[in-house]
């Protein structure tokens, strides 16, 4: 039951080339920065990443992207990463853009064992009809486009069928965690972290504070330990290193 690893390097050591990863965070809020850096050092390549976004240039998943380690991204937002745009438009990177709520539910459904679901989001657009560019060719033409999806009417309203997402591994960050893998998230970090944790077959969590089993109130737990296989305790310096994309303060 003790799921604590001695280091982030140990926790990610067996992630192979070509693995699929669900990664928590929203922008740079609540991202598993230490695990991402450890994976960069470890050297796995050809990764297929599922995350709301792909970090920014030089931070978060942007580190793996810049190193050419990511082959495919399933996400909702790409606006803060110039290298992401360059790789996508040049045909180096395959990208599946998904409505944000749909992405959240696809991850949750994967963790809950639900293979697919219908949603009205995307009906009447390329999300449902197909044709979204997943990969460009070097000459700028579309090399791979999204396929059309099944649609069905419920109560007179059309819905599109979306498939659940499960991944080989998941990397998440939590405020507090115990040795059994129960996690408590704080404020904005409770974004895609619970959903990513559910979707990963092997979920690795970095925690700012590690406590003993029984210290966390069951009512406070956001991610039960059944979804978490490995825990990494951060140092105080690592826990305090939190960046944001754009800092706005009053004059």
UniProtKB/TrEMBL annotation:
One of its GO terms (molecular function) is CoA-transferase activity. Keywords: Transferase. Belongs to the 3-oxoacid CoA-transferase subunit A family. Pfam families: CoA_trans. Coiled coil: none annotated. This is CoA transferase subunit A. It comes from the Bacteria. InterPro entries: 3-oxoacid_CoA-transf_A (IPR012792), CoA_trans_fam_I (IPR004165), CoA_transf_BS (IPR004163), NagB/RpiA_transferase-like (IPR037171).
